[in-house]
Write a structure and sequence with these properties.
It is found in: Cell membrane. With about 425 residues, the chain is α+β, with helices and mostly antiparallel strands. The protein has two domains: about 180 residues, no CATH class; about 250 residues, no CATH class. Helices cover about 50% and strands about 15% of the residues. A six-stranded mixed barrel has the order 2-3-8-5-7-6. A hairpin with an 8-residue loop joins strand 2 and strand 3.
């Protein structure tokens, strides 16, 4: 019977091609607008490291006090002094500090000009903590941290540019007149949003291409290429050493904690550390610390751009308007077939049969609208950059999941929209229709 209802619906749609086209276009445009904005929202709101997001934490420490902090929240990064104190305490199974660096790379090919490569100064635990995939070699170990060795881990793009994609482990890269030995080459890796550096970036950027040991970078005088916040107190210092030992925050901290007991223990450690600094006279306020995991950190930092939420809400509202128009068109179409309904009811068809027939017809409209919506969604992907930042727009793409979702939403929404017109059509009185016609 269902196939029979589909045949009846198809014949009905063919009898009114203009009305059918209006309904299909209404559904298709509404679905496309919703799916394009959803594709962006899906990317920016996704968990960048779901397998470990509940075990990676950002420790925060208030070194400014209630007079200068923002809404009672500690700064989003640490001073060099506090970062080194947390590292030396070793209260987490894995821990790392990082800051952004930008170094000039000297190509080995004669005649080629130097170019800037961006990345991070960090510790050895960075690579296993964030499960960084390697194409060749590996990161340095803890001894490399302590020895302040001039080693570098480079990205796949930089390796292709310098060495033609070959295994470059052990070879030399010259950056800012300093020779570095390549310890490893990272495969394609660029978590979005870039959760581990929401202090110096907006979370969306090209993949980092260089990683150097933190201790070496500080000893070599490599300045931060990212943010450097000294607060309203203005404690910047008059030279590099006083700045380094001062109250400016520029180091992003991360720790890996495996269970609730370790989380509670580390939070207690942070509070105790802040309390000792108050007793020593550095702080004049009660301990104010935070320990946020990845999801909490992204929510706090507002990783989801507000324009993506607004665009999604507007698109959904537009889709609802399209559905209301579809309801009106279906109502007009179904009520025009009152004589046909009266004859079918007089021949023994129940209201249930009328429901099934017209809902099947609405489902066909939804399927056609969904197919048009998928096509328009693909076209809309090329225009995302007009609304969103290029770094965000390039992340959205049309995949099988989005295609399936588009078709499912189109069919389900159209069938739901058809319930009221179908109910009105099923109320037709067969005796009255037969008598009047």
């Amino acid at each position: 019977m269902f196939l029979h209802y589909l045949q009846l619906g198809l014949a009905s749609l063919r009898r009114n091609p203009l009305l059918t086209a209006l309904m299909v276009m209404s559904i298709g445009v509404g679905v496309a607008a919703s799916m394009v904005t959803y594709a962006v929202f899906r990317v920016v709101s996704s968990d960048p490291i779901p397998q470990k997001s509940s075990r990676l934490f950002v420790p925060q420490l208030d070194n400014r006090g209630p007079r200068y902090n923002r809404n009672g929240e500690p700064p989003d990064a640490l001073t060099y002094t506090d970062a080194m104190a947390l590292m030396q305490a070793r209260r987490a199974p894995r821990q790392t500090m990082l800051y952004q660096v930008g170094l000039s790379v000297m190509p080995q090919q004669p005649g080629r000009l130097p170019f800037k490569a961006l990345g991070y100064a960090t510790f050895a635990d960075f690579f296993p903590m964030f499960e960084v995939p390697f194409l060749y070699g590996r990161g340095w170990n803890a001894d490399g941290d302590d020895a302040r060795a001039p080693v570098v881990v480079i990205g796949r793009q930089l390796n292709q540019r310098l060495f033609g994609g070959a295994d470059s482990v052990g070879r030399t890269v010259v950056m800012d007149d300093q020779a570095y030995r390549v310890a490893g080459v990272i495969d394609d890796w660029n978590p979005q949003p870039r959760f581990f550096d929401m202090f110096s970036s907006n979370g969306y950027a090209d993949p980092p291409q260089i990683f150097v040991p933190f201790n070496f970078a500080v000893a070599a005088g490599i300045e931060t290429y990212g943010n450097n916040s000294c607060g309203s107190g203005g404690k910047r210092g008059s030279d590099r050493e006083s700045w380094l030992r001062g109250e400016c925050v520029w180091v992003s901290p991360w720790v890996e904690l495996d269970d609730a007991a370790q989380v509670q223990g580390y939070r207690s450690f942070l509070e105790g550390y802040a309390r000792r600094l108050r007793e020593a006279g550095r702080f004049g306020w009660a301990p104010n610390v935070r320990l946020r995991d990845v999801r909490q950190w992204l929510d706090y930092r507002g990783a989801v751009p507000p324009e993506s939420r607004i665009a999604l809400a507007v698109a959904i509202g537009f889709f609802i308007i399209c559905l209301v128009n579809t309801i009106g068109l279906l109502l007009a179409k179904f009520l025009r077939r009152a004589p046909e309904i009266g004859v079918r009811r007089a021949l023994g068809a129940s209201r249930r049969h009328i429901y099934l027939q017209f809902l099947a017809e609405a489902g066909m409209v939804g399927l056609a609208g969904g197919a048009l919506g998928v096509l328009l969604t693909g076209v809309g992907m090329f225009g995302i950059g007009l609304v969103f930042q290029p770094q965000i727009a390039c992340l959205a793409h049309l995949d099988l999941r989005l295609v399936a979702l588009s078709l499912a939403v189109a069919i389900a929404a159209t069938v739901l929209a058809a319930f009221y017109p179908t109910w009105r059509a099923a109320q037709v009185q067969p005796a009255w229709q037969l008598k009047s016609n």
